[in-house]
Amino acid sequence: MCAYILGIESSCDETSAAVLDNTRVLSNIIANQQVHEKFGGVVPELASRAHQQNIIPVVDSALKEANIDKKQLSAVAYTRGPGLLGSLLVGSSFAKTFALALGIPLIETDHMEAHILAHFLTDETVRPVPRFPFLCLTVSGGHTQIVLVHSPSDMKIIGKTIDDAAGEAFDKAAKILGLPYPGGPMIDKLAKEGNPNRFSFSEPVVPGLDYSFSGLKTSILYFIRDQLKQDETFIEKNKADLCASIQLSIISILMKKLVLASKQTGIMQIAIAGGVSANTGLRNAILRNKEEMGWDAFIPKISYTTDNAAMIAVSGYFKFLKGNFAGQHLTPYARQSGR
Ligand code: KG4
Ligand code: ZN
After folding, report:
1. Alpha-carbon distance 95 to 327, whole Å?
2. Residue 336: inside a domain
3. Which pTM value belongs to this model?
4. Which of 19, 103, 173, 181 is least enclosed, having the fewest CB within 10 Å?
5. Where are the alpha helices (DSSP H) in the chain?
């Protein structure tokens, strides 16, 4: 069977559309919204407006690049949540209207599950695919989860953050250092030149497989504040070492619970997903553990780590195979628990 799935992603500040031929990516267009940069974070109202401006040209480009006419599409998959409600409304309203106009099925997908299912996307690069069941460390700007993945439709969150997400920790630390939003990629870049063992920050004590990152942020904030009192050029002089040390702290917190989850479940198929899985230090830590623990490790292609519609389309593809379609009455949800 050949299914052409159009994916629509609009949960935060990326407007994205993709066309898949089954799991094969024919196009994956992403329009980033620069408008938030000067505010140091995403402004929800501006994000909704930018999605409204971007959605038609982005879908048009995705169809053109895939060389697919809209009449050839088999289904439209969209992000129902979690995310910013106003942003989600733009993508979901478009998807509903498009599916209705074309007389094809509409498929709702969960953004966090889609990050995980990005591992099943295929393209010109050959990458190994995890076998079920596997564990996925899903790390993004809004979520940090360890997910036990039994199948595309059966996932169980076995650990999660009780406060900030890992991406938020990167972004907030970057803000303290005076770096632009989003801070994760900047810290990653600067960390490459720095000494990760130069500074150390307090690690949280959280039971089980859950995470906490708010204490780390406070520890960084107080440390920098004290240092600046003695030398106002402290950040400038030590930027690379600070970035490398902060990055190491976040990765060390993430890896400890992931190792524990692997030991507790006996699962050795380990994947990472979400925006923070683009981080060089985290990717290297996974590869080191692969050797030390004997894991089969799965690291996504960089272009499928941060928000994109190809992951939404592949998530939709699995539901398409099962005939799991959505009604026009469904409303978006801001939180995963609000499904
Ligand atoms: O998955 P994503 O694109 O959006 C959400 O679903 O939240 O993740 C965005 C997050 C941001 O916090 C960003 O700083 C972080 O991913 N991020 C990174 C890197 N690239 C993106 N964090 C660390 N290192 C990176 N290279
Ligand atoms: Zn995301």
Report:
1. 11
2. no
3. 0.97
4. 103
5. 44-66, 85-102, 111-117, 166-176, 183-191, 214-230, 234-265, 280-293, 309-322
State whether 153 and 265 are in the same domain. Answer: yes
Domain limits for position 50? 4-124+304-322
Which residues fall inside 5 Å of ion ligand 2, going by CB?
140, 307
Q: Nearest Cα to 251, choosing from 307, 213, 301, 291?
A: 213
How far away, in angstroms, is 275 Cα from ligand 2 center? Answer: 6
Total domains in the fold of the chain: 2
Q: Which ligand 1 atom sits closest to the C-alpha of 247?
A: 23
| Residues flanking ligand 1, CB < 6 Å | 12, 140-142, 167, 170-171, 182-185, 188, 274-276, 278-279, 306-307
pLDDT tens track of the chain, all 339 residues? 789 999 999 999 999 999 999 999 999 999 988 888 888 888 899 999 999 999 999 999 999 999 999 999 999 999 999 999 999 999 999 999 999 999 999 999 999 999 999 999 999 998 999 999 999 999 999 999 999 999 999 999 999 999 999 999 999 999 999 999 889 999 999 999 999 999 999 889 999 999 999 999 999 999 999 999 999 999 999 999 999 999 999 999 999 999 999 999 999 999 999 999 999 999 999 999 999 999 999 999 999 999 999 999 999 999 999 999 999 999 999 998 777
Tokens of 172: 């907030």
Are residues 100 and 173 both part of a single domain? no
> Does residue 93 belong to any structural domain of this protein?
yes
In a domain, 168, yes or no: yes
* Residue 247 belongs to domain with CATH number: 3.30.420.40
248 CA distance to ligand 2 middle (Å) = 22
- Report which ligand 1 atom has the smallest distance to the Cα of 167: 12
* Residues 95 and 139 grouped into a single domain: no
Same-domain check for residues 176 and 120? no
**CA dist., res. 112 & res. 266, Å (int):** 24
